[in-house]
Amino acid sequence: PAGSTQRNFAKGSLALLLVLTCSTAALAEPKTLKFDQSTAAYKGKDALSAWTGTTKDVNGTVEYDSQTGEFIKGEVQVGLASIDSGNGVRDARMRNEFLQTDKFPTALFVVKKIENFPKFSEWKQWGNRQKGKIIGDLTIKNITKPVTFVAEAIYTGKELKVTGTSKVKMTDYGITPPSLLLITVEDSVGLEFDAL
Predict the structure, then answer these.
(1) Coil, strand or helix: which one is 140?
(2) Residue 84 gets which letter from DSSP?
(3) Which of 29, 107, 139, 179 could form a disulfide bond with 184, CB atoms 3.0-4.6 angstroms apart?
(4) Residue 150 C-beta-side C-alpha neighbours within 13 Å
């Protein structure tokens, strides 16, 4: 009957509308936070001294689901050729002999997951300042190793400022610790970043 056909058509149209609505929600555009006012640093030391090399050649992004606030992915690129420790001889050796920045100009940190931080949609409920861990893979000279940063983040709802610290071994990235006059730099190097 015509009435039955119309009812079935209406039910089918409603079902299709619900499917489309759900599909649209599932395919919500991710939001992206960009870090372009950032600093990265390494801390080295030997038996006689300690020093810090820094660079502002840092670019990073974090993507999160615009509806759920869940973290999706993130990455940070650091230009190694611009690292400055205040000692030109040391920096030249680091660039040319150890990091080989002519072949490997950047370091890449790909974020795999974050721990103990709230969802972006719930941040204000937790408080603006939070501490957690940022876990990912760090690639230097085409060698990739897992690295975990202990981090602190401040999220205002419009911008995110994150600071973090970690440690790596130079030998893990195929770098022999530099030595001069029988004094050798420690294999363990501190890593720091300040991202905004």
Answers:
(1) strand
(2) B
(3) 179
(4) 4
DSSP state of 101: T
Can you read off the two tokens belonging to residue 10? 């209406």
Look up tokens 């419009």; give the residue.
158
Tell me the per-residue pLDDT of 72-112, one tens digit each, with 9 for 90 and over: 999 999 999 999 999 999 999 999 999 999 999 999 999 99
Count helices and strands in the chain by DSSP H and E runs: 3, 12
Return the SS3 of 50.
strand
Residue 121 identity (one-letter amino acid):
S
Q: What's the gap between Cα 38 and its chain centre?
A: 12
Residues 114-154 have pLDDT tens digits of 999 988 878 777 777 899 999 999 999 999 999 999 999 98
- In angstroms, the CA 98 to CA 87 distance is 15
29-58 pLDDT, tens per residue? 898 989 888 999 999 999 999 999 999 999
Beta-carbon contacts of residue 195 (< 8 Å; ≥ 6 apart): 35, 38, 58, 60, 76, 160, 161, 162, 163, 164
